[in-house]
C-alpha cells in the first residue's frame, strides 16, 4: 500500500480534509460547515474555537474512513482563507471572534487610509479596503475596542491553530501578505503599516516560507485526531495560490479561476505587479514568486441567494435545478444584465457599498433568465478583473476552473464563452486542498519540484468556447463595465435613506 498525504483547507464557510495518494487520487474526504455570525450591521465574524473543533473533526474522520495504516501518513498541508483577524492573549487565547474578509465595519478607516496614505498599497501590494486586517486594526484603535486594548497578539485563523496545536508563533508569507501589514518585496512586516495599526512586530507572528515544517503536535490534539504526534504539518499558504498550485497553473499565461462562496482570478508571477489603478493585489508566495489577481465577494453566494428566494418548503431547488433553469435561457438572458455586488465588492471596483442590481428586468423574464443573468454577472466581473491583469501584461493563455461552480456545466460554458478561451477542469474541485497536500510533499522532499504537480493533476474535461456567444458577451461586457460608473452614487444614497 502506498503512502498518502492530507490537505486541510480552512475556508470561509467550512473546513475540509482530503486524503490523497501521490497521484492526486482522493482516498477520503470530509467537510464540516460552520456559520458566519453577524452581531451588528456590517460585521461578519466566526467563532475560532468552533473552527478548531471542526478542523479536528474532519481530520479524525478522514483518518477513520480511509481505513489505511497510520504509519503511511507522510504529512499534512494547511490551506486557509485570507484576511481573518483575531485579538488574543500572549498564550493564544482568543479575546474576540475571528473577523473575516466579509466584515466591512472599517469602511471609514479604509477610505481615510486611501486618502492619507495611498502609498501603502505600493509597499504591501494589498488594496486599502475594509477586508484587510490593517483597516480592522485601525478601526479597533480609533474606537479603543476592548479586545484590541486587552490583546497582546493579533493573528489569523490559521495562526490561531498553529499556536494552539504546536505552540509556534509563525505565519506563512501569503497569509501575512494579505493583511496589508506585510512588505511585499522585503518579506517582512512594514513598519509604516504597523504604526497606522497602532501595533508593533512583537504583536505579530514571524513570517516564514510556505514550506515551513511544524513538528511536535500537541499530544492531546494528536490523540483526538488519531495520528502520531510526530506527523509533520506544512504551514502552507492561503487558499488562493494553493488553488493555482492544485490545478498546475504555475507558468506565465496559466490562469486559475475559483468560484466558491466568493471568487477570484489569479496568476503566479516572477515579480510583484503593483497596479497603479489599485484594482488587483500582489501577494508574496515564496522567495521567488508572487500571486497576482483579484478576489470578488460575490461568487456562489449569489446563486445561493437566488436558490433561497426561488425555493419553498417542501420544494427546494437544488444547484442542479438552478443550472438547468439557467440553461433554458439564451446567452444574454433575454437582454437581462446583473451586477452581482450583493455583498459589496472587492476587485475590481473596491466598493463595499455597491449593491446587486438587475438592469433590463421586465414582466416577461422567467426564473431561468434571472439565474442565467446572475451567473453571467459573476463571470463578467471575473472577466473585468482579468482585463486588469491583461493591462499589466499578463495574458490568459490557459484557463483552469476550480471551486464549486465547476460542477455546473452551464456556468463553466459561460466562463469559456466570455473569455473566448478553452477551460480546463480538474477531477476534483478541491484544488486548494490538493495544492496544500502537494506543497507538503515538496517540503518533505517527497517530490522534487512544485511544477511536477502538472504531471499528476487529474483532469476531467476541457470546455471549448462558442465564438458566437463570445462575440455577444464582448458586447454585453461593454455595457456591464459602464453601468457601475453610471449608478454607483445611488448605492450611497440608498445607504443613507434610513439615516436621520
UniProtKB/TrEMBL annotation:
Q: What keywords appear on the UniProt entry?
A: Kinase, Transferase
Q: Does the keyword Kinase apply?
A: yes
InterPro entries per record: ATPase_NBD, Carb_kinase_FGGY, Carb_kinase_FGGY_CS, FGGY_C, FGGY_Carb_Kinase, FGGY_N
Domain of life, per UniProt, equals Bacteria
Query: What family is reported?
Result: Belongs to the FGGY kinase family.
Q: Where is the Carbohydrate kinase FGGY N-terminal domain?
A: 4-246
Protein name stated in the entry: Gluconate kinase, FGGY family
**Record CDD domains:** ASKHA_NBD_FGGY_GntK
**PANTHER family, per database record:** GLUCONOKINASE (PTHR43095:SF2), SUGAR KINASE (PTHR43095)
The molecular function terms of the Gene Ontology recorded here are:
kinase activity; phosphotransferase activity, alcohol group as acceptor
Specify whether Cytoplasm is a keyword of the entry: no
Q: Biological process (GO) annotations?
A: carbohydrate metabolic process
Amino acid at each position: 500500500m502506498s503512502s498518502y498525504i492530507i490537505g486541510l483547507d480552512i475556508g470561509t464557510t467550512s473546513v475540509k480534509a482530503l486524503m490523497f495518494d501521490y497521484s492526486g487520487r482522493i482516498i477520503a474526504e470530509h467537510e464540516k460547515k460552520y456559520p458566519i455570525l453577524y452581531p451588528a450591521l456590517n460585521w461578519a465574524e466566526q467563532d475560532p474555537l468552533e473552527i478548531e473543533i471542526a478542523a479536528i473533526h474532519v481530520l479524525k474522520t478522514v483518518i477513520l474512513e480511509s481505513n489505511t495504516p497510520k504509519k503511511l501518513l507522510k504529512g499534512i498541508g494547511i490551506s486557509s482563507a485570507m484576511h481573518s483577524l483575531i485579538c488574543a492573549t500572549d498564550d493564544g487565547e482568543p479575546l474576540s471572534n475571528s473577523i473575516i474578509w466579509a466584515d466591512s465595519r472599517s469602511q471609514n478607516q479604509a477610505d481615510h487610509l486611501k486618502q492619507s496614505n495611498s502609498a501603502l498599497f505600493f509597499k504591501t501590494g494589498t488594496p486599502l479596503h475594509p477586508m484587510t486586517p490593517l483597516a480592522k486594526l485601525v478601526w479597533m484603535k480609533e474606537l479603543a475596542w476592548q479586545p484590541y486594548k486587552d490583546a497582546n497578539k493579533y493573528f489569523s485563523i490559521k495562526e490561531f491553530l498553529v499556536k494552539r496545536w504546536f505552540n509556534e508563533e509563525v505565519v506563512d508569507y501569503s497569509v501575512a501578505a494579505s493583511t496589508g501589514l506585510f512588505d511585499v518585496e522585503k518579506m517582512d512586516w512594514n513598519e509604516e503599516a504597523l504604526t497606522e495599526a497602532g501595533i508593533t512586530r512583537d504583536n505579530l507572528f514571524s513570517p516564514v516560507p510556505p514550506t515551513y515544517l511544524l513538528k511536535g503536535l500537541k499530544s492531546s490534539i494528536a490523540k483526538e485526531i488519531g495520528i502520531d504526534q510526530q506527523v509533520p504539518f506544512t504551514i502552507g499558504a492561503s487558499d488562493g495560490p494553493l488553488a493555482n498550485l492544485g490545478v498546475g497553473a504555475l507558468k506565465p499565461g496559466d490562469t486559475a479561476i475559483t468560484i466558491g462562496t466568493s471568487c477570484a482570478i489569479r496568476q503566479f508571477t516572477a515579480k510583484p505587479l503593483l497596479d497603479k489603478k489599485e484594482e488587483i493585489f500582489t501577494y508574496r508566495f515564496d522567495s521567488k514568486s508572487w500571486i497576482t489577481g483579484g478576489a470578488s465577494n460575490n461568487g456562489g453566494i449569489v446563486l445561493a441567494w437566488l436558490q433561497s428566494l426561488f425555493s419553498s418548503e417542501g420544494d427546494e431547488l437544488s444547484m442542479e435545478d438552478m443550472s438547468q433553469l439557467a440553461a433554458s435561457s439564451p446567452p444574454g438572458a433575454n437582454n437581462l444584465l446583473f451586477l452581482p455586488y450583493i455583498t459589496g465588492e472587492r476587485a475590481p471596483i473596491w466598493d463595499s457599498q455597491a449593491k446587486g442590481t438587475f438592469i433590463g428586468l421586465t414582466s416577461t423574464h422567467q426564473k431561468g433568465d434571472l439565474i442565467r443573468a446572475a451567473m453571467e454577472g459573476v463571470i463578467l466581473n471575473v472577466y473585468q478583473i482579468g482585463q486588469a491583469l491583461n493591462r499589466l501584461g499578463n495574458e490568459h493563455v490557459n484557463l483552469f476552473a476550480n471551486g464549486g461552480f465547476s460542477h455546473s456545466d452551464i456556468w463553466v460554458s459561460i466562463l469559456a464563452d466570455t473569455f473566448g478561451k478553452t477551460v480546463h477542469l480538474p477531477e476534483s474541485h478541491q484544488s486548494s486542498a490538493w495544492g496544500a497536500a502537494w506543497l507538503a510533499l515538496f517540503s518533505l522532499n517527497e517530490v522534487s519540484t512544485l511544477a511536477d504537480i502538472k504531471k499528476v493533476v487529474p483532469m476531467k474535461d476541457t470546455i471549448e468556447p462558442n465564438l458566437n456567444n463570445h462575440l455577444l458577451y464582448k458586447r454585453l461586457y461593454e455595457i456591464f463595465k459602464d453601468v457601475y460608473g453610471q449608478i454607483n452614487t445611488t448605492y450611497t444614497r440608498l445607504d443613507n435613506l434610513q439615516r436621520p
